[in-house]
Amino acid sequence: MKNSLLTPLICLVSGVAWGQGANLTGQVVDPAGRPVIGASVVEKGTNNGTATGGDGRFTLRTRTAAPRLVISSLGYVTQEVASTEAASIKLAESSTSLDAVQVVGSRSVNRSVTDSPSPVDIIDIREVTAKTGQLDVNQLLQFVAPSFNSNRQTGADGADHVDPASLRGLGPDQTLVLVNGKRWHQSALVNLFGSRGRGNTGTDLNTIPAASIERIEILRDGASAQYGSDAIAGVINIVLKTSVNELTANANYGAYTAKYRFDDKTFDGGNFNANLNYGVGVGKGGFVNATVDFNQRQHTQRANVPAPDDIQRRQYGDPKASNTSAYLNSKLPISENIYGYLFGGVNFRKGEAYAYTRFPTVLDDDDNPIPNPRSNPTLYPNGFDPIITSSLTDAHGVAGVRGTFGGFDVDLSNGFGSNRFHYGVDNTLNATLGAASPRSFDAGGFQLQQNVVNLDASRSFKTVLEGLNVAVGSEYRREWYSLFAGEEGSYRKYPGALNDRAAGSQGFPGFQPRNEVNASRNNFSLYADAELDVTKSFLVALATRSENYSDFGSIVTGKVATRLKLNENFSLRGTASTGFRAPSLAQINFNTVFTNVVGGKPVDILLDRNNGAVSRAVGIPALKQERSQSASVGFTGRVGSVLNFTVDGYYIHIKDRIVLTGTFADDDDKIGPILQSLSVGQAQFFANAISTDTWGLDAVLSNSSAVGTGRLTTTLAANLNRLLIVGNAKTTPGLAGKEEIFFGVREQAFVKASAPPYKVNLTFDYSLGRFGALVRFVQFGHVLLYDYNTERNAYRDRLTTDVALSYSLTNQLRLSVGASNLFNQYPDFFNPQVTENGGAWDAVQMGSNGRFLFAKLQFRVSK
């Protein structure tokens, strides 16, 4: 009865609101009268908006009697106009430092993204989140930015709780992450398993709620000379919201409809998100904008697929996780030319991920069933599924002051960030304690902290040729890394009748006192860059940077870039640069004994620290920085109002990449006696073992045009990427002849699988009055991995389809429903006994959860 009354009421309210509107057309141009492409046009006080097409024109069906429009575009001052002024709207360029919009890749306040000599993607988060089912930043970027790749892992220890992500097929730690242009801290986690990021650290983008983000800028170009270590693949700059007097609230829910499962559930992996954002003005041009966000994600279950006889895990799928975040962004005027700023936030995450099943019996060497020495029939008659729990606390804050002094735009800031990862193990036991064992343990963890002080100054000289911008600056960074032990029962082998059994908590042995580390280092850098408009058509940019690390010395990098406008509709651009990435403190110091399952048999593996006893015994040298040389060349342009396009080819050579080696067994003639003395079955290390070449192509084509009385925006974006390992892996003299073990075909395949060889995104986005529809096709290229038997696991190409429909119930309330992976596509199946994570799939391509159905309510109101 309630539903029968509600439906006509909604239709009545919507119909009345529809009747109030009218079609409004206009054009947005720059100061020279040229059309501004992609400018945002929003009816003030509503969630109703559109974007300008290739000719700068727009059509918007308004919803209020006397509408006012808010027009914004990168590099221009936001403008508010009455509907009577919409025929021709001229935007002013951002000319003052206090109001400038900085785009990553350039320190010129007068440079727009279309003028950049380097390829930059701009992703409007409000537009993306309104029309897709993805809720966290990694998954949003996975499906809208072809050069970005991220997959959820399962059975990968810490990587189950922190999604590794990569740009242009390189490592997660080879992309620098900035927030509001300031260096952000990395995660304390080192990825040990999974198909992406093995041996790498990276930045946990999911600690930043999407609701707090205005846009994300992706600089797809080497930028170490501009921004420092880690920017080999590029830079991701997250720009926080600056809106004032506007309240936005969102409630989202979705769940998976699994095609393959063995229980009777129709849906699983329920994902709920709710957030609130509001900003207030402070003084003249200042603001405080705050966001609170909560996200709850449930387990998915994809075990026993497709062959029950091959099962080695009763639980396999996405981990359970809850995220609570609070973020703030502010600008506080001090005087007419000086302001202070404060931004950052905190994220609390709780996670639960299943480890490999400990069955009640196992097979001996003659294939006869015997009691499992890693289980206990009294505590667990049917065996058990250990649960690895995580408690993550992530926080970062930046405070600074910025202003104009003597014609220079000067920025002084200090930022401090921390990522703490604490493990627990539930539903487990210590086998050496027998039936007296506890069933849960504190397993210890690790923490990374970073403090960064920046002083930057830039100035524009408009009378030097057609314009010169000069920037200089310095950065002092101090980092701390610690690893702390768990409780005794999580790692100890207790004396007694069961002393021959594996020590510590099953599923995840705790960190031991001998693993504990407290390490730190500092870094000081100086940089300078200049951008010169030689003519109105020809730009040249140069940058250089010198860095000194307390633990391995100094390095100098450089970059040159150019852009040539052949006419108003076509430009050529190119860059060449050198870069570097310092080994993270985690890679230098992380060490542990963890359990892996190979062919259904658990084995304890020692991951020795870089200067540990085993590493020294086999001659593993101290880690040094990775060095890179990269180049890109491309063109941008438009064909009238029909088509806009950018095409960029790139080459990246990286020397001395840091990788996680293969495993050496305790019967090895070199390492075996040492491993036997430590009661571990295998060992592996961090080493600068390989060099790689990456060749690729990025292409983006877009069109926005009127279709009937509505507007259709079509976007085709593609990344083609090929990574080659140059020469043979570099082993130590003590391991000569063991290259296949040190870094063989299986480990090499994991490096190459950081991204499919191509990913293509075709999106159709149509709006008509209060109605909107989006259809998106994403083609993922094939991925080749090798299992534990070094057999090929060739994951063939896959095409996923996303559909979303939206309707504005009122001027302030919008409902969206849709499906991601509408046709329930999965990667190819393989034998769970020999895959990396013990399931029918590795973590590749679009993931292994199937169709995701979602609904969203979005509320937006402004004064």
TrEMBL record:
Specify the TonB-dependent receptor plug domain's residue ranges: 113-235
Cleaved signal peptide residues? 1-19
Q: Which UniProt keywords apply?
A: Cell outer membrane, Membrane, Receptor, Signal, TonB box, Transmembrane, Transmembrane beta strand, Transport
Localization terms from the record: Cell outer membrane
**Residue stretches making up the TonB-dependent receptor-like beta-barrel domain:** 348-822
Q: Where is this region: Disordered?
A: 299-323
- Report membrane topology: Multi-pass membrane protein
Record-stated family: Belongs to the TonB-dependent receptor family.
> Under which name does UniProt file this protein?
TonB-dependent receptor
What organism, scientifically named, is this protein from? Hymenobacter frigidus
